[in-house]
Amino acid sequence: MQFKHFLQFNDFCREEYEYLFERTRWIKQEFKQYRQYWPLSDRTLAMIFDKNSTRTRLSFEAGMHQLGGAAIYLSTRDTQLGRGEPVEDAARVISRMVDLIMIRTYEHDIIKRFAENSRVPIINGLTDEYHPCQIMSDIFTYIEYRGSIEGRTVAWIGDSNNMCNTWLQAAEIFNFKVNVSTPPGYDINPERIGLSGTTHYEKFANPHKAVIGADLVTTDVWTSMGFESEAEQRKNDFAEFCVDEEMMSLAKNNALFMHCLPAHRGEEVSAEVLDGPQSVVWDEAENRLHTQKALMEYLLLGKLDAGS
Ligand code: CP
Ligand code: NVA
């Protein structure tokens, strides 16, 4: 049987995202009208978490219920995965019992090995390298507010982490530009994330310069999950990389601010920006639900006709 995985943003092409966003608009509208839509009524999603989560767990679990299916939460803390059962064996077993699997884990290699041994589609719910579901929601949110993101400039301020890497992949697919500003020693690694060239990003040592003229300013925590031992060092290294009102004032007047959350007010973003008029972080979080419902529908049922 032919099926697709969603392990990184460039697993899908532009046309597939256009389709997913069209489905998302319809699914969101039906949900807001309290209209029942149960296309996955006999399907089961397993969600494997190796790291903490609020949004990802809730949006997948609620999303699957709202599509008529069931979702099962598995944590490595209390499954055999946490006691050393090989990823390959777990993939073979779990994928015989459910229709779809979402995984949040550490190295991307883990999810790749899982996918290679799975009989069903695998969704990346965040790895050290990528967070494709979040960027799908972010771009959908940008389009809701401002229309096409093609030709726009996104300023990424802070760590070259999973969010940054995924923005860089998305820029090639949607044809926009990312101005990246990271502190010394936290540079991006374009080869590692498979970028095809240098035309869709530009590096800036000074974060203020990266933001000039941007349509969207975005950042993330200085210390991602799995890097906690570096937290104190990172507080020093990232001290100049707080998105505050002064920095935002350099972007376009109608620039949006995004953050995948959870956020640390006073570190990577000031409270005034996060809670201010340019911030769309709550819509960004909500759209995880709607975009992922379209994603699950697509992975399990393929392309459907509009309005069905
Ligand atoms: N943004 C995001 O993925 O949030 P959680 O860690 O709460 O899932
Ligand atoms: N970069 C963050 C994102 C959390 C949703 C992390 O990996 O911890």
SSE blueprint and pairings:
Blueprint: H1 14-32, E1 44-49, H2 55-66, E2 70-75, H3 87-97, E3 100-104, H4 108-116, E4 122-124, H5 132-146, E5 153-157, H6 162-174, E6 177-181, E7 201-203, H7 207-211, E8 216-219, H8 231-237, H9 245-248, E9 256-259, H10 271-274, H11 281-301
Parallel strand pairs: 1-2, 1-3, 3-4, 5-6, 5-8, 6-7, 8-9
Helix pairs in contact: 1-11, 2-11, 3-4, 5-11
Q: How would you describe the overall organization of this protein?
A:
- The chain has 2 domains: 9-131 and 286-301, Rossmann fold; 134-284, Aspartate/ornithine carbamoyltransferase (Rossmann fold, 3-Layer(aba) Sandwich).
- The chain is 39% helix and 13% strand.
- The radius of gyration is 19 Å and the shape is globular.
- It has 11 helices and 9 strands.
- It has helices at 14-32, 55-66, 87-97, 108-116, 132-146, 162-174, 207-211, 231-237, 245-248, 271-274, 281-301, and strands spanning 44-49, 70-75, 100-104, 122-124, 153-157, 177-181, 201-203, 216-219, 256-259.
- The protein starts with 13 loop residues before the first helix and ends in a 7-residue tail after the last helix.
- The mean pLDDT is 97.
- Helix 1 (14-32) crosses helix 11 (281-301), helix 2 (55-66) crosses helix 11 (281-301) and helix 3 packs across helix 4.
- The protein binds phosphoric acid mono(formamide)ester (CP) and norvaline.
- Phosphoric acid mono(formamide)ester is lined by residues 53-56, 126, 134, 260-261.
